User: Fold this.
Amino acid sequence: MASTVKVQLQSLNRDLTFAAKSASGHWTMIDTGEKGGGNQAAPTPLELLLEALGGCTGMDTLSILKKKRTPFRHLEVFVEGEKREEHPRSFTGITLRFVLHSEGGDKALRDLQRAAALSYEKYCTVSNMLKASADISYSTEIVDGG
Assistant:
């Protein structure tokens, strides 16, 4: 049976700034730049989309690394999207870079590569939705030391 995810948005005053409330009760602000008629007071919808992709793949990746008992201090995920020049200004390409802070050496790197691949290929709902409309690539890197 399919499940449903719901959110509610409300504009603030008559500006382009919105307050969005998730079904779990969390609030997120959304805005656009002054050039687009907004106040530049919060992330844009496309920035939030990239954050959602980074969060989804990052959570999957860390979950897999924990199951493999890969030692790490923390994970950084850098996400960059390339937009079309004409409307709709959707993403044509997205690049993710996973940087694992670990002293696990080559094994940690192999674990990271496998975890990122599993997230991209199987687990991350956001990447699986986006790869139908944008080329998504990723790279992995280990940063050693304190």
